[in-house]
Design goal:
Number of strands of chain B: 18
Distance between the termini of chain B: 72 Å
Radius of gyration of chain A: 40 Å
Helix content of chain A: 25-40%
Largest sheet of chain B: 7 strands, mixed, barrel
Strand content of chain B: 15-25%
Distance between the termini of chain A: 82 Å
Shape of chain B: elongated
Structural class of chain A: alpha/beta
Radius of gyration of chain B: 36 Å
Oligomer: heterodimer
Strand content of chain A: 15-25%
Chain lengths: 683, 508
């Protein structure tokens, strides 16, 4: 288990008046006057103060850290003058560059009027020790988790102090102050809740001097002062060099490596017709190039950083994007990247290109002309990652095809149906933190799959009912739900009666062409099998809800397994009768609730579906087959609309047929005896 | 995983073995036993795990790769019959030779194993086991340079009798070596006196423990299928910041749902495995479904085959759970050379957040529970990728002036708008305030004065044909930059309201 020093970094920025001294590096800012003809004298260059350069460098360090490690690498700014001020805290929401910039505005540049003798960097250093003793959110979580395992959390951190140092003795006294502070704060925080003694601290001094000034060599490599503290001193010029120095430190502190993407084709700024090739340098975890670095096979790949970083950079060549980037790549790792010079035009072009959703393959230029595509740049949800593509031989070469193995010779898998099943079981992220999802969303996904697969024959030849969905719809898709409403129960019942009707009419079942793997090709056999399957399907879902029980009840009423004697058939017919009454009443209600206009549309729909039938018959059909008008019907002419309207009016005025008025389900039964005789005829 | 059979062919291997029970039969030497053992091992592989690549490397004071990595085990067997004797045992040479044959072929990320077959004599002098250990002691334990930089286990199969007085010392030295190289392994010695039987037994046991195929069950709700996963998934053992993770892939691979291939977007995986369906009955008994058996099982419907077919047709992947808080995906994969399709399992880095653009794995919900379908009414949307909450610097229009070019570009933007006043007035003031805010953040107040001087000059340089409002706005902005108000971040420099600007506004 590792407790990295880099989890917590405190930047101690010297905010004393001495830092207002000029960096002595001139910056020409008035440079674009050439095209405006002669006579324009450029304005005098500006210079940044030491403070400005330090602040820029520290912010750049944070920019890189936050871009690459947004979760567990934290940085806190402390300004030190007559006292110490924390600009942000360890809290996650305070860990971003924007927050730091806002705080720097509020802090302002060092005041000229402050008495230099009141200012000391020691204030900042001791405060830094104090904030390192504070536990971060992550550390608190880990401490809680570790309590069970009897191991203790190690609290480590790093202080980067940007100041100007006077002498070796000055360094000596500062490190003693820090050592003293650690011991004191460790005692104070021993029993505190959100504090913890510091186990180890790395103190890094960055001594900044104005450009051109010689200074005594107080630079010193990392050395251990005590088990609690190590100290190192870096010396740098102010101006651009300080940022380079600090970014170099970031590379070391977070084990970063640089990649230069070469040959990026880009339209030229001045002359948009032509295009030239540019390079962009990116920073990322060292692990991205582990394969190349381990094998030592980096000949011709490593160059000195073009952005002036004190490190080498590995070159990868831009490959013209492929169109089919959506296929799965053989990707063995993905790491966040950030451009070294985030503002430059080539960087912005590359990042915008990637953020727009496209991906770029990168190849290693090899001697001998062989192409080796080793990486891919792509963005996901707003951040850019470099993907490592496997480039070595795979142990998966040349496997036997799946069709040569078990189950490979079957040709009637329900491939298409399972495709639909997969689409029905697609996942989506539950991102709303405010609404709790209980049980966990993934558990609900599993439950859903469980319900959907209780009966799911995998081959066409294994099933009757899933080959006759047109007859059973919507029962198979409704029954798998965890709840059914009354309408859905009715729909299920309708489907059951439909099949009952088919059987009583002795209609053939749609048997799949591919040879059925079950015995019996006689119609009764097929019906028997169909009923068994249907029963299984309904029974496995019966406990989903009480409504499901109703469906099963209906099924058992209709289909008693003990053979169809007359009484059950009678029961069944009664049940059908009852259902039909239900349906009729229901639909009549619906009709009553309709507005004139809806009634008109409703009637129109029916007249359209049966254009030949005389208007008298319509009400009968309406009450049974209330179906929405297919919206795809072709636009009507005014004439048909008018005639329809007239027909509807007539229909309303029409006097009900006496036979139907007497019947109890609004249906005039024709030949009432016919049914009876049929069922009583001995077989 | 690729296996190197690293066979000791030093002279000591030709020592004869005393056969207690087989009086009268022909004599064997240790090398004969080794060959017998290797044959046993290869036979087991060809029945149960015939996709494994094996290479044969021999060593003494030099090493040689006799057979490159192959699935043609017969070739290795026939090569074994042609061995001759060489000089002394130099384990350092042997191991580094085996290591380089692995990295040359498979790179630094494929898990592999070395099976060292030797006689328990650890060598003398340069390259001997003792010397490796001593050099290592001098370098200090934990030195990274000493260990293999690629995941490779070392197993030592020692052809020596357990009664041999020196064997315990050798075994503990082998164990130390395994520790030094850092990826685990085992030392085996025969259970009884050295003989053909005990050797065979040792190799069989070793095979069962380390090279037997990985069998499991693929589940999707109630649909399930016995499967063989190749190569065998490795134990995940890694020391992360703040936690050590040690996980084993569970034998029930449970599908939790499906995603479109474009939504998972080439996720990184730690390993990839082929998934072969097995017939229902053989999973728990003798799993080695040989060719004849497959002939019969081809007609048994298999969920794996159905899943593969549908994933391929619909271009989708199945997300599955492979362990506690550990996930992977199943998809159809075609061998780039042979165009044969197979079901592939990619295992992701453990953890519920290992693919940030899918959100947390535990928060993947069935799309039916959303009030509005996240895939849209006509399947024209996608809820992926999950967007990051904090934008990165490259999508924030971050201001950085470390290089003069950055500063110049920002100044240039202000100027460009300044020259197109009053049309570009909103842009001009927006850029001006952006530069001003950055200058205040970095305490770069010198820039405000410089900018003010620059705007004054622009005002003077305005051509006669310029709109009168341009001059007014420029001098207004230049003056504003010199005031105390410009140094107050809560204030913004706003356009001066002139009669011209109101005309322009009305015109708009």
């Amino acid at each position: 288990m590792a407790y990295p020093v880099s989890h917590k970094t405190v930047f101690v920025l010297d905010h004393g008046p001495a830092m207002m001294a000029s960096s002595k590096e001139n910056i020409d800012f008035d440079v674009f006057n050439k095209s405006r003809g002669p006579g324009i004298i450029p304005l005098a260059p500006v210079t940044k103060s030491l403070w400005t350069c330090n602040a820029e460098a520290a912010v750049e360090y944070c920019r890189i850290v936050y871009d690459l490690f947004p979760d567990d690498k934290l940085v806190q700014f402390v300004a030190s003058d007559t006292s110490a001020t924390s600009l942000n805290s360890w809290q996650h929401k305070q860990q971003n560059v924007q927050k730091l910039l806002d705080c720097l505005v509020v802090l302002g540049p060092p005041g000229h009027k402050t008495d230099p003798s009141d200012c000391s960097i020691v204030h900042g250093l001791t405060h830094a020790v104090e904030v390192l003793c504070e536990l971060t959110e992550k550390q608190q979580d880990v401490r809680l988790a570790l309590e069970e395992t009897e191991t203790t959390l190690q609290n480590k951190g790093r202080i980067i102090c940007m100041t100007s140092l006077k002498s070796d003795r000055h360094v000596q006294s500062l490190q003693e102050a820090v050592q003293e502070a650690i011991i004191q704060h460790n005692q104070l925080s021993a029993n505190a809740d959100s504090f913890m003694p510091l186990n180890y601290c790395e103190l890094v001094f960055v001594h900044v001097r104005p450009v051109g000034r010689k200074s005594d060599s107080i630079s010193s490599p990392k050395k251990s002062v005590s088990p609690l503290l190590s100290v190192e001193v870096h010396v740098t010029d102010s101006g651009r060099s300080v940022a380079t120095k600090v970014v170099g430190l970031a590379q070391r502190h977070y084990e970063l490596f640089s990649t230069t993407v070469t040959g990026i084709p880009m339209k030229e700024e001045q002359n948009s017709g032509s295009s030239a090739n540019y390079d962009v340098e990116l920073l990322h975890s060292r692990d991205v190039h582990l394969e190349a670095l381990n094998s030592g096979n980096t000949e011709g790949l490593l160059i000195q950083s073009k952005e002036g970083l004190p490190s080498q950079s590995l070159t990868l060549k831009w490959c013209t994007p492929k169109s089919n980037i959506m296929e799965l790549q053989n990707c063995v790792g993905a790491y966040r990247v950030t451009p070294v010079d985030v503002n430059s035009r080539p960087s912005a072009c590359l990042t915008n290109f990637l953020l727009s959703g496209r991906a770029v393959m990168l190849e290693q230029p090899r001697k001998g002309g062989t192409r080796l595509i080793s990486h891919m740049l792509a963005s996901h949800g707003g951040e850019i990652l470099i993907h490592i593509l496997s480039s070595t031989r795979s142990v998966l070469e040349d496997p036997p095809s799946i069709s040569e193995g078990c189950g490979g010779r079957i040709t009637d898998y329900r491939i298409h149906d399972f495709g639909e099943f997969m689409k029905e079981n697609r996942l989506a992220p539950w991102t709303d933190q405010n609404i709790a999802c209980d049980p966990l969303p993934l558990q609900r996904s599993e439950n859903h799959l469980e319900r959907m697969t209780r009966v799911w024959p995998i081959a066409i030849g294994d099933t009757m009912i899933f080959n006759m969905l047109s007859h059973l719809d919507p029962l198979p898709s409704l029954i798998v739900k965890d709840k059914l409403d009354d309408d859905e129960v009715l729909e299920c019942k309708k489907a059951i009666y439909h099949v009952v009707g088919m059987e009583s009419r002795n209609e053939p079942l749609p048997v799949p062409n591919a040879g059925l793997r079950t015995k019996g090709s006689k119609r009764e056999e097929q019906y028997r099998q169909m009923w068994t399957e249907l029963e299984t399907l309904i029974k496995v879902h019966v406990s989903n809800s009480p409504q499901h029980q109703k469906v099963l009840d209906c099924f058992t009423d209709c289909h008693k397994t003990d053979g169809g004697n007359t009484s059950t058939i009678k029961q069944r017919d009664e049940a059908i009768m009852e259902l039909e009454t239900d349906l009729a009443v229901k639909e009549l209600d619906t009709y009553q609730k309709l507005t004139e206009r809806e009634k008109f549309d409703f009637n129109k729909g029916n007249s359209l579906s049966q254009p030949q039938s005389p208007p008298v018959k319509k009400i009968k059909t309406e009450s049974f087959m209330f179906k929405p008008v297919p919206s795809s019907s072709s636009p009507q002419s005014l004439h048909t609309m008018w005639t329809n309207r007239l027909k509807a009016v007539h229909a309303m005025r029409h006097v009900e047929f006496a036979g139907r008025q007497e019947s109890n389900d609004n249906t005039a039964e024709l030949y009432p005896k016919l049914n009876e005789t049929k069922s009583e005829v001995p077989l | 995983m690729p296996t190197v059979i690293l066979l000791d062919v030093s002279l000591s291997m030709s020592r004869p073995v005393k056969m207690e029970n087989s009086a009268g039969s022909e004599d064997y030497n240790r090398r004969n036993l080794a060959i017998h053992g290797i044959n046993t091992f290869l036979d087991a592989l060809s029945v149960k795990n015939k996709l494994e690549y094996v290479s044969l490397v021999i060593f003494s004071s030099l090493y040689e790769q006799l057979v490159p990595f192959t699935r043609d085990y017969i070739l290795i067997k026939s090569t074994l019959t042609k061995l001759t004797d060489f000089d002394k045992t130099s384990l350092a040479i042997g191991l580094s030779g085996a290591a380089s044959t692995i990295t040359d072929e498979w790179g630094y990320s494929t898990p592999s194993q070395i099976i060292l077959i030797t006689d328990g004599s650890t060598g003398v002098g340069q390259g001997s086991l003792k010397q490796i250990l001593e050099t290592h002691k001098q370098m200090g334990i934990g030195d990274k340079d000493a260990s293999f930089q690629f995941p490779c286990t070392i197993h030592v199969l020692c052809l020596a009798s357990p009664q041999d007085p020196t064997i315990q010392a050798s075994v503990s030295m082998y164990k130390k070596i395994i520790d030094i190289y850092g990826h685990g392994g085992e030392v085996c010695i025969p259970e009884s006196t050295l003989s053909l039987d005990s050797t065979q037994k040792m190799f069989c046991q070793f095979f069962e423990e380390h090279c037997s195929p990985f069998h499991g069950v693929l589940e999707c709700g109630h649909l399930e299928c016995n499967i063989h996963i190749f190569p065998k998934p490795q134990v995940y053992s890694k020391s992360h910041d703040f936690e050590d993770v040690e996980l084993e892939v569970c034998h029930n691979i449970k599908i939790v749902g499906f995603l479109d291939t474009s939504d998972v977007a080439s996720p990184p995986f730690i390993s990839r495995h082929l998934v072969f369906p097995l017939p229902p009955q053989t999973a728990n008994t003798d799993a080695g479904a040989s060719d004849e058996a497959i002939g019969d099982t081809g007609k048994i419907p298999s969920f794996t085959v159905l899943l593969h077919g549908s994933l391929k047709v619909e271009n989708m992947v199945a997300i599955c759970q492979v362990g506690s808080e550990w996930y992977g995906m199943l998809y159809s994969w075609a061998d780039p050379h042979k165009k044969k399709s197979n079901l592939m399992l990619s295992i992701f880095e453990p953890g519920v957040k290992s693919l940030p653009w899918l959100g947390k794995f535990t928060h993947l919900a069935p799309h039916q529970i959303f009030t509005a379908s996240p895939y849209g009414e006509d399947d024209n949307k996608t809820p992926f990728p999950v967007k990051i909450t904090e934008k990165r610097s490259y999508s924030l229009n971050h201001v950085g002036w470390i290089k003069p070019a950055g500063l110049q570009a920002d100044i240039q933007k202000v100027l460009r708008h300044a020259r197109k006043l009053p049309e570009k007035m909103p842009h001009f003031y927006k850029e001006l305030n952006r530069v001003r805010k950055a200058a205040l953040s970095y305490g770069f107040t010198e820039l405000l004065d410089a900018l003010s001087a620059m705007l004054d000059r622009e005002c003077r340089l305005l051509p006669g044909s310029a709109h009168p409002d341009a001059a007014l706005q420029l001098s207004h902005a230049a003056n504003a930059l010199r005031t105390e108000m410009a140094r107050d971040i809560t204030q913004t420099i706003t356009p001066m309201s002139t009669k011209y600007s109101s005309i322009i506004n009305e015109a708009r």
